[in-house]
Write a sequence for this structure.
C-alpha cells in the first residue's frame, strides 16, 4: 500500500502543477488583454492632457498609440490640423498649410459630438476664415503684379500675375529651345531660349 499511496500522491501532485500552470497561463492571457486595453485608454487620456497643454506633437503620438475609436480618430484629425495651422501662422502664411489644416478637419462631420467637439468646430471656423483671408491676400498680391509681356525672362514670367504655368511644352530647334507655357483659360506664353516672344491672353 505504501507504493500505491506514493504513486497516487505523485499523480495528484502532478495534476496540481498542471492545473496551476494552466491557471497561470489563463491569468497571463487575461491580464495581457486588459493591460493592452489599459495602455490604449491611458494613451488616449494622456493625449487629452497634451491637447489641453497644446503639445500637438506629443498628442499626435499618443493618439496614434490609443485604441481605434471614433473619438481617437477625430482628435487625431484635430491635432494634425492644429499642427498645420500653427505652422501656417508661424511661417510665411503658406496658403497650402491652411488648405492642409482645413482638409484634416473637413473629415470631421459637423454632427460629431465626441470629446472636444466644440473646440474642433471653433478651429474649423478659424482655419476657414484664415484661409479665406490668405486667399484674398494672395489674389490681391497677384493682381498688383503685371501680366507677362514680350522680352521677359522665365523668372519674370513666374513672378508675373499669371504665376506658374499649368504645364510646359518644349521643342528643340536649330535656333535653340522653344517653350509653350500653358495657363488656364487658353492663355499661352511662348519663349525662345528663355525669353518671351509671344503672349496670347
Amino acid at each position: 500500500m505504501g507504493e500505491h499511496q506514493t504513486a497516487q500522491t505523485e499523480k495528484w501532485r502532478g495534476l496540481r502543477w498542471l492545473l496551476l500552470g494552466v491557471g497561470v497561463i489563463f491569468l497571463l492571457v487575461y491580464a495581457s488583454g486588459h493591460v493592452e486595453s489599459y495602455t490604449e485608454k491611458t494613451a488616449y487620456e494622456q493625449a487629452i492632457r497634451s491637447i489641453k497643454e497644446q503639445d500637438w506633437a506629443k498628442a499626435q503620438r499618443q493618439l496614434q498609440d490609443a485604441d481605434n475609436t471614433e473619438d481617437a480618430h477625430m482628435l487625431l484629425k484635430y491635432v494634425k490640423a492644429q499642427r498645420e495651422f500653427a505652422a501656417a501662422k508661424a511661417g510665411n502664411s503658406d496658403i497650402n498649410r491652411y488648405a492642409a489644416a482645413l482638409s484634416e478637419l473637413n473629415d470631421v462631420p459637423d454632427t460629431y459630438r465626441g470629446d472636444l467637439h466644440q473646440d474642433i468646430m471653433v478651429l474649423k471656423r478659424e482655419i476657414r476664415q484664415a484661409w479665406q483671408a490668405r486667399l484674398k491676400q494672395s489674389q490681391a498680391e497677384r493682381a498688383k503684379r503685371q501680366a507677362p509681356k514680350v522680352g521677359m525672362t522665365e523668372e519674370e514670367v513666374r513672378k508675373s500675375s499669371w504665376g506658374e504655368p499649368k504645364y510646359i511644352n518644349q521643342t528643340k530647334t536649330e535656333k535653340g529651345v522653344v517653350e509653350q507655357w500653358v495657363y488656364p483659360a487658353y492663355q499661352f506664353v511662348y519663349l525662345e531660349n528663355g525669353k518671351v516672344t509671344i503672349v496670347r491672353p
About this structure: Strands lie at 167-173, 176-183, 187-192, 195-200. DSSP finds six helices and four strands in the chain. The mean pLDDT is 86.
